[in-house]
Amino acid sequence: MNEQDPNIPNAWPFREAARVAARLARTGKTSALFETGYGPSGLPHIGTFMEVARTSWIRRAFTELTGMPSSLLAFSDDMDGLRKVPGNVPEQDMLRAHLGQPLTKIPDPFGTHPSFGAHNNAMLRRFLDSFGFEYEFASATDYYLSGRFNHALSVVLAKHDAIKKIILPTLGPERRATYSPILPIHPRTGIVMQVPIEQTDIEANTVFWRDPETNDRFETSVLDGGAKLQWKADWAMRWFALGVDYEMSGKDLIDSVKLSSRIVQELGVEPPETFTYELFLDEQGQKISKSKGNGLSVDEWLAYAPPESLGQFMFNAPQRAKRLFFDVIPKAMDEYIVNAERAPADPDPRTNPAWHINGGYIANEPPSPIGFGMLLNLASVVNAENPDMLWGFIQAYKPDATPQSAPFLARLVDYAVRYYQDFVRPTKSFRPASPLEREALEDLATSLAALPEAADAETIQTMVYEVGKRHPFASLKDWFGCLYQVLLGQAEGPRFGGFVALYGINETISLINTSLARTN
Hints:
3-stranded antiparallel β-sheet
C-alpha cells in the first residue's frame, strides 16, 4: 500500500496513513505507534491541540485502511532543564532559583502538584481529555528513572562519538567545544549539565565530566535517570527505544528531523515516517510565538465558536501557512457546516473533513440550518444584545427550530451574539449611498415588495442579481459591496438572498429605507 494507491480515499490523513501502513509492511510490525511530543515548560497551547488532532485523524485513517491496532503516545519531555522562567506563571523568583533543574524537580509555583512538570503534565492531560482524544500519556522522567530507556541509552553511549560527528558540523565554534549528546545530572545541584564529556566507559555505562565552576571531576551513570540526552539525540533515542512509526512537527524543526533521523539510523533502525506542517501566522503575517503571545489560544477560539470550527481550521491544508486570528473563526465554522451537510451524499464520506473531525461519524441531518456568518449578520442588523433577539427571526424562517430541537444552532446563536458584540459592533461603519446606489437600492426595495412573502432564498438571490444588472455598476461585486457597506456597515457580508429570507422581506425593505435616510 502507498499514498498513490487510487483506492485510498482522497484526503491527506489517508495519504499519511498509507505511508505508515507501507512502513509496517517493510518492518514487519503488526501495530503502529504514533507519537506527539510536548515540552512542559509552559501551558498547553493551540499547537498542542493541532498536533494531537491531526495525528488522531491519521491514526483513525490508518485503522480504516488496515484494521491493524495502533496507539498514540503523548510524550512529555519533563526531564528537560528549565531554561527560562515563563512570564505567565507565579513565583518568578522561586523558579529562577531552580533554573537548569529538571522540570519534575522544581516546586510547583501554583502549589497544586508535586512539581512544576507534574502541574503542566496535568494541565496537558486535562486539556487533551476535554476534547475526547484517545491517547496514552508518557513522562520522560518516569521513562528515564524506571530504566525503560536504559538499553537505548547504552546504545547511545556506545555511539557517542558517531553522534557527535553528526551534530558538530551544525554548531558554532563555541558550542562545538562543549557539545555532547549526553547531559549528566549534577549529583549536588540537580542541574542538567551541558558540559564536555571527557571520557566514556561503555562497559560501566558511565561518563566522566568536570563541573565548570569547581573543576571537580565526576563519573556519572547514564542509566536510571543519572543523565538525559540533548534534544535531537533524545528525540532519536525515543524513536529507537519505543519503536515510533509516525510523528509530525513544524516547519521550524525540519533540520532537527533530519539530524534525529540520521542519529536513529546510526542507532540501527529506520526513522519513523514524519510530516512537516506549516506554522501559523498572526494578523500581521508574523509567526505565532508563545513568548510573544500573538495569535490566539484554544480558550480564546472556543469562546466564539465550537470545537468543530477549530477542527475544520486545523484540517485545511496543513502544509500551507495560515493566519490564526479571530477573523478566521466565522469562515472555519461555516466550512464545517457546509461539509457536514454534504457529507451524507458524498460518494465516499471519508474524503469529507467532517468525517475526520467527527471521529468517523456522519450525521444524516446537517448540524445547523443556518450558517454562522448569516447569524452574525442578523446579529449585526438587529444590534443583538442577547440570543433571544435572534430567535424570533430564526423561528419565522424555520418554524420548527427551537433551542431544544436544534441544540447546535442554539450554541451558534450564543456564539454569534458574543462574536458580534466583541468584533463586529466595534468596527461597524456605515456609509451613505451614492446616487447610482440609491437608485439601485430603491429598485431593490420595490422588487422585494413585489415578491410573495414566502419567497425562498434562491428566488430572492436571483432577483437581487437582476436588480444589480439593471444598473450601470462596473461589476456585480460593486453592487454587493454597496449592500454590505450601506445596509450592514461592513466590508463583506452573507449571500444576500439567504439573509433576506432569514431577516424577512418587509424588515429588509425597512432596513433599505432607513439606510437611504442616513446622510452620513
